[in-house]
Amino acid sequence: MQTKRNAGYEAWLVQIFLIATTIVVLYPIIMMAMSGFKTNAEIFGNPFALPKSLNFDNYLVIWNTTDVPRFLLNSTIVTLASVAILLVTGTMAAYAISRYRFRGSIMVSLFFLAGLMLPLRLAIIPLFIQLKFMGLIDNLLGLIFIYIAMSLPSTVFILTGFLRALPSELEDSARVDGASEFRIMVEIMVPLITPAMVIAGIYNAVPIWNDFFFPLIFIQTPEMKTLAQGLTSFFGEYSVNFGVLYAGLTLAALPVVIVFIVQSKRFIAGMTAGAIK
Amino acid sequence: MANVVLRSVNKQFGEVKVIKDVNLTVEDNEFVVFVGPSGCGKSTLLRLIAGLEDLTSGEVHIEEERVDHLAPSKRGVAMVFQSYALYPHFTVRQNMGYALRVAKESKETIAKKVNDAASVLQLTEYLERKPKALSGGQRQRVAIGRAIVRDPKVFLFDAPLSNLDAKLRVQMRIELTKLHRSLNATMIYVTHDQVEAMTMADKIVVLRDGKVEQIGAPLDLYNAPDNLFVAGFIGSPSMNFFDGTVINTSNTDVEIDVKDSVKIKFPLNEPSNLSTGDKVSFGVRPEHFTIGNTNQGTFTGEVYAVERLGGETYLYLYVGDQKEVVAHMSGDQKIAIGDMVEIGFSLKQSYLFGPHGDAVR
Amino acid sequence: MSMTNADYEKAKRNRTLKLKLWLLFLILPPAAILIVFVFVPMGSAVWYSVFDWDGLVRKEFIGLANFQDILFNPLKNKVLFNAFMNNVKVFVSLMLVQNGIALVIALLLARNPKGYRFYQVVFFLPVILSTVIIGFQWKLFLNPVFGLVNKFLHNIGLHDWALPWLGLPETALNSMLLVNSWHWFGFPTLVFLAAIHRIPKDFIEAARLDGASEWRIAREIIWPLMAPAITIITVLTFIGSFNWFEIPYIMNGLEGSPAGSTDMLGLMFYRTAFGSVSAGGSNFGSGSALAVLMFIFIFVFSIIATKYLTSREVEMN
Questions:
Q1: Model ipTM value
Q2: A255, B27, B313, B331: which is deepest, by most CB within 10 A?
């Protein structure tokens, strides 16, 4: 709203408040990362001091003796696979809804949007029985399908908006040029909505990566656990070794934080995509 | 013979009929312009020929072959769109070569055809650029180049100049005419701008509400409009119309009374079915008025605006009961606002339309 | 070689058919996933709630008995009521604390201070972190003996303040609410900020020219015009509050300890459905009934709230 930079004491007050908030936000995260380099003795004796040295022992413990690397791998597989299939299927549905006039097209789009209203968590019991029946309990594939289904409505919603905005003359032009419907979609139209796909991808990838609830119920064997869920058993195991625990948390947070810092603009646009029109 | 023939073409969207029984022949190498107000169905008609819309009924033939069941690319047509519809993520070269790539032409063929077209259109130095880095006129030429590369039987243009500024539009008009002559191709061109139609067309098709109002050479439409609509649509500024009533008819002429003020004896070339008391419209083009009385007919009016352009002058007058009339004179005229002026016309350059708008000749 | 009219019609129909198949190909796979993994389970949840269950085995139809049991069985409805009231407390507190802080920060950021981009990124950082990480991190911080919070309080001499934060019924829920606010406040902040940026500058400049104070501008122009964002955040906070599960589960476990002070409908649902120390074996019937009740409650309230809140929104033209 106000374009001029504020001068004077008012601006100072604003800055003081914002800096204080920044400290409240950053300090715990920094402490977490720092404590990962400390021994238990350091944490208990000198909790606020800098670590004595850049000591990777805790990380070595995690890497060599725990399942955390495995959890990391599982989470990566689940998130990448879910988001990849999600973007493909979501684009397909959104493309059909937004680029063609056909009987029942409104019904189809309502069908996809209705999913936005349904909190899937509350259907966990039938899902459990169903996955058991399909042999997908304790199977990453089960999680992947659930995440795709859960994220499809928002993906279709976001992508439909962007696809609708593309001029139909592009499509017509490609049609006259002889491209098949498939080719028009893949070569001409979809490349033009890649920014929207990144937004939809981030919007759904973050909750999928962070999800704890579905694996808690559907995954039991340790080798199949995802990171968020695996941390709980890791916490049980190392409950007295604070240094290792902090290192584990830092390691778990690192991938998302790095991507966030590199892509913060898209992240913010992506994560708030549902609430900002 | 790359001619285009439409037979009883109808198109409806749901309940709405947008094209009503259109019959039309475009000859080989002809430049035909579809013109009409927005919503008249001219673009739809073009899209039906291209195959971007399906006919509700009727037939489309291109080069003596029925094509309305074929996909657009199988009809031998190329189309240039109003927004140019360049693929934003492709370079100019990729844009121009896309159709050939889809048709699985060899790389060498594509490169050669694209280079040839680019040199004709002076686009060679822009081939590796993306459309975003081009000016409006350059984009326009890429769109045309994309059509040329395909070597189509028929070129279809959907109001391709309407996004350009006035100066560029005049320039492109001339370039397109030149292109038509050098390519010797059949072209169908859609526009709502009657000036474009008049200046470029071999033949104009005037459309209104999905129906053909008149087909003919530009000057035929100008000189002998079939009806009130065409008379009003062709020519700029528009023809002035005066309401009148028939007071007497004979085999050779018809006498009308224009708003109780002027009586006109309109000569007939062919017998009319007008009878006394019919409401008619009498039309005179602004450029056919002259200052002063002619012994064939004269209106008197009060000037309420004058536009002097040096070489020409536009007079705006109230004639009779606040009827607004435009007169176009060559040269500068010493006339001021508020003057009472007599403007005369000749019966040879005036028009009469019957109660249903049909021309009386 | 010559084709009859019927041949042309057939060729046209083939083209239409091809197009229909293409549309079907586009729509069917995503629709199938959605049906199998969302619509069928959601429907089944309702269906399951009217049956008696023995583990994974569905027994006879028992009508609304499961609902009756949850709502009116004195043992269970006490738990239900306690959990429900805790969820209400969560919602109210988060609205006031989390969203209140967010609104203040959004208003400050809207003044375009130096470091605007930096603050945006920093405040959003906790939002992207997993609730599990944040729950555990703060559980470590709040550890009564070794936690940083109490160490800090001792260091500055406030020995009496060093409480077992998560162990006392009076402080456990409040601690969790602060943790949740720390985790999420960046989200409403940026939603509010986007809403403020959408308000035409002319409105605010005109008011400033009229001599309105900054406070009046905030209250009489910005606040009413950001109503749509407030609606969205309210509804999202409501849904989040009544589905609240991760933070209490990770920080204090499935039973809502101490003394049920952090018990939530989500925890109760989990215990009922999948069994626990207090609830005994798993009971899919009661669990489904509770899920249905929660769904209806959340759904109805969201609709009413959206309706009510949208009615106070002003059209911006």
A1: 0.87
A2: B313
User: What are B144-179's pLDDT values in tens digits?
Assistant: 999 999 999 999 999 989 888 888 899 889 989 999
Report all structural domains of chain A as residue ranges with CATH numbers, in order of start: 8-59 (no CATH), 66-237 (1.10.3720.10)
- The reply to whether A177 touches chain B by the CB within 8 Å rule is yes
- Whether residue A273 contacts residue A200, with contact meaning beta carbons closer than 8 Å, is answered with yes
Which strand (E) or helix (H) includes residue C66?
helix C65-72
Q: Do B194 and B174 lie in a common domain?
A: yes
Q: Is B108 in the same domain as B190?
A: yes
CATH for B63: 3.40.50.300
Beta carbons within 8 Å of B289's beta carbon, 6+ residues apart? B327, B328, B329, B343, B344, B345
Distance between CA atoms of residues C246 and C98, nearest Å: 17
CATH (domain of B288): 2.40.50.140
User: Does residue B356 share a domain with residue B219?
Assistant: no
- What percent of chain B stands above pLDDT 90? 71
- Residue at token pair 């609708």: A164
Residue A82, pLDDT > 90, answer yes
> What is the total count of domains within chain B?
2
* Domain of residue B141, residue span: 4-233
pLDDT band for C314, please (50, 70, 90 cuts).
low
Q: Is C8 on the interface with B (CB under 8 A)?
A: yes
Q: How many C-beta atoms lie closer than 10 Å to residue A218's C-beta?
A: 22
pLDDT above 70 as % of chain B:
99
Q: Which of A23-27, A62-66, A238-242, B349-353 has the lowest mean pLDDT?
A: A238-242
